Amino acid sequence: MDEITIGFQSVVEEICCRDWEQFTQDEMTAVAWAYYFFSIQFRECLEVALRLHPEDQQLRRLDREECATANLSPWPGVAEAKEAMNHDEFMRRTLTLSPISLAVQSKLRDAGERYLATTRAMDDYYKAMTIASYECGGLEAVFSAMLRAKHLDTPLLASFRHFLKKHIAFDSHPEEGHGALIRHFLPDARIRPMWVAFRDLLLVAVPNQASFD
């Protein structure tokens, strides 16, 4: 197993190996809430990468397709036709589509804010490097695993499913996909803490589902 695999791919595999088919509707709703905070982190890492590499045109294209974009629009109750927004804003609006209890909201917000505090404290160089691990197969694998869930039919979860499917399409094209745009940022073992933080956020969101092995 090479350094990259030891560094973060094993954590991706831990996430993907959860028994997603058995997640309940409430558990998948909690996952969507957790992912909202991840989407904030993703945007912030992309902003860091742009600040560090302002002349990188492929990175700028990725930014255009992740931020202030209409490529998720339209979606009922979330985005009007051709309405442009950051992808984390799409997720924020998605969370309003189906109610959850205030107690659960509080728990998930607290977990999300702790997660963001952790990722924001990490070195900017590793934040920028992490984007490549997300776009070059990491998130495609995680999203495909999440889509194995059977309970994605509430308004909130239908919107989340739309988000996941669209992002798999964005990332997967071998020449024009987001992974192709960012593959020159070579990730290594030093980004592992970013993936561990995401894994742990998901575990806090759904503590009663089978633990990571």
Report on this model:
The protein has 213 residues and is mostly helical. The chain has nine helices and no strands. It is globular and about 45 Å long.
**Contiguous helical run count:** 9
Count of distinct strands: 0
| Mean residue pLDDT | 89
The largest sheet, given as strand count, sense and whether it forms a barrel, is: none
Helix content: 55-70%
Nearest-angstrom radius of gyration? Answer: 16 Å
- Give the N-to-C terminal Cα separation: 18 Å
Shape: globular
Order of helices and strands: HHHHHHHHH
Structural class, please?
mainly alpha
Strand fraction equals: under 5%
Low-confidence stretches: 1-5
Looking at this protein, list some descriptive labels:
213 residues; globular; 0% strand; mainly alpha
Architecture blueprint of SSEs:
Layout: H1 3-16, H2 25-52, H3 57-66, H4 87-94, H5 102-120, H6 124-146, H7 155-172, H8 178-182, H9 192-205
